[in-house]
Amino acid sequence: MKIGIDLGGTKTEGILIDNIGKELIRKRITTQKNYEGTIDGIKSIVNDFEYKFGKVESIGIGMPGAVSADSSLVKNANSIWLNGQPLKKNLEKELGRNVNLENDANCFALSEAVDGAGKGKAVVFGVIIGTGVGGGIVVNKKVLQGRNNIGGEWGHIALPNRTEDEIRYNKKCYCSHQGCMETYVSGPGFASCYNLRHNTNLDSYEIIKTYPDNKKSKEALDSYIDHLARGLSIVVNILDPDIIVLGGGMSNVDYIYEFINDQLKKYVFTDTCHTKVVKNIHGDSGGVRGAAWLS
Fold first, then answer.
1. Directed axis angle between helix 215-239 and helix 187-198, to 10°?
2. What is the pLDDT of residues 3-45, one digit of tens each?
3. pTM over cut 0.85
4. Distance in angstroms (rounded) separating the CA atoms of residues 4 and 292
5. How far is 185 from 128, CA to CA, in rounded Å?
6. Other CB atoms closer than 10 Å to residue 176's CB: what's the count?
7. What are residue 57's phi and psi, to 5 degrees?
8. Radius of gyration, CA atoms only, the chain
9. For residues 156 and 147, is the Cβ–Cβ distance under 8 A?
10. Cα–Cα distance between 242 and 275 in angstroms, integer?
11. At a CB cut-off of 8 Å and minimum separation 6, what does 118 contact?
């Protein structure tokens, strides 16, 4: 049996699966927005599962950000109370066993590579387009972390060939850089670009639900698909994956899949682009299932 935990900024979800991926139990709790409370929440899920099913030797946890290869401390987490903390060390002490800690986008990619939309593919690039933008690389069912433990972090490359218009209606990224993909293709980024352009104050759901009746929402979605294709073309040109699997809230917009593959072909440096962009299979469960497969 394997325990996987998806540590998010608002909720923490745990799952127990057997060695063929069958779900045995699932639990979701509210994430406490402080370091000690976060650890206590994870511990409560593990204790509950083991009380009901018996002890599990190792645990996989997907988390925002990454663990620094130099300091072993958390870095780059948008759940900022985790940054600078020895999360792996503290969890192993509290739980009394090995803990496999991995970026949540990597967990999503691993889940889809093992038994999801990327099953049977050698190189899978998993994309998160939700509150933030992240990515994970899986090669032969193994996460490729990279020397700096930031493999797949395409959300903080700049949108290629930004126009004056795209520069004007765009906010600076929280990472302090200008033009990051996250500021265009995350849910809040999509909404921000729309609101700056039209002087409104809508969230992404409110904009999308007016499609196709609202011309402005259709134009915004068409721009979104173009931005997504331009960003992913960089990934294809460098990594050349077999498949790209989309996850996160914006991946549920079916309109994307009508046009994204044709749009991607315009920007990739090849005569024929065989890499397909597809929707995930496991949905919101991708991260937690991938975390379980770590252990």
1. 140
2. 999 998 888 999 999 888 889 999 999 999 999 999 999 999 9
3. yes
4. 4
5. 10
6. 7
7. -75, -35
8. 19
9. no
10. 5
11. 109, 112, 124, 126, 138, 242, 243, 245
